[in-house]
Design brief:
This is VCBS repeat-containing protein. The protein is mainly β and 155 residues long. It has one domain. It has one helix and ten strands. It has one helix spanning 133-136, and strands at 8-11, 17-22, 31-35, 48-52, 61-65, 71-76, 85-88, 102-106, 115-119, 125-128. It has a four-stranded antiparallel β-sheet with strand order 4-5-6-7, with no helix packed on it. It has a three-stranded antiparallel β-sheet with strand order 1-2-3, with no helix packed on it. It has a three-stranded antiparallel β-sheet with strand order 8-9-10, with no helix packed on it. β1 and β2 form a beta hairpin. It is globular. Mean pLDDT is 82; it is low at 136-141.
């Protein structure tokens, strides 16, 4: 919400995404339940949300993993401090990790672009470097993970 502290989004077994706003400080959290789900979002069972600026417009877009092992992209068309997510087809379709994808966006290689790690139900960890909309369509590669020996289990 643009107030310098971290908020919490929790994916649920039946696909809902819960939003808890941090009304505390960056040092001391105070959670307020805001929304049971985003009505326009149906990412499928075992939703696993992550946020990052995937379209390079300065706001947080939403990428959600699901039970099918796929990712669904929701572009944020809202203004600072508010969300207005629109499902966009065609991006991230080539990423399929099998079952229960759990994505995390971060700038792992410190080059200014979001990188993507996707965990899956059998313990695998998939890595995709420099993941912006300008670089994604038709050219997603599953790079060798820098954490190749890591085993991840989802619950």
């Amino acid at each position: 919400d643009g107030d310098a502290d971290l908020d919490l989004f929790v994916g649920q077994t039946f696909g809902k995404i819960y939003f808890y706003r941090n009304d505390g400080t960056p040092q001391i959290s105070a959670w307020t339940f805001v929304s049971e789900s985003f009505e326009s979002i149906d990412a499928g069972s075992y939703s696993a949300p992550t946020f990052g600026d995937l379209d390079s417009d300065g706001d947080f877009d939403l990428l959600v993993g699901n039970d099918e092992g796929k990712l669904r992209f929701y572009r944020n068309d809202g203004i600072t401090g508010s969300f207005s997510f629109v499902f966009i087809t065609g991006y991230y379709d080539s990423i399929d990790v099998g079952e229960r994808s759990a994505p995390v966006l971060c700038d792992f290689d410190s080059d200014g672009d979001p990188d993507l790690f996707v965990g899956e139900s059998k313990g695998g960890l998939h890595y995709h470097k420099n993941l912006t909309l300008n670089s994604i369509r038709g050219c997603v590669t599953d790079e060798t993970s820098p954490l190749e020996d890591a085993v991840v289990y989802l619950s």
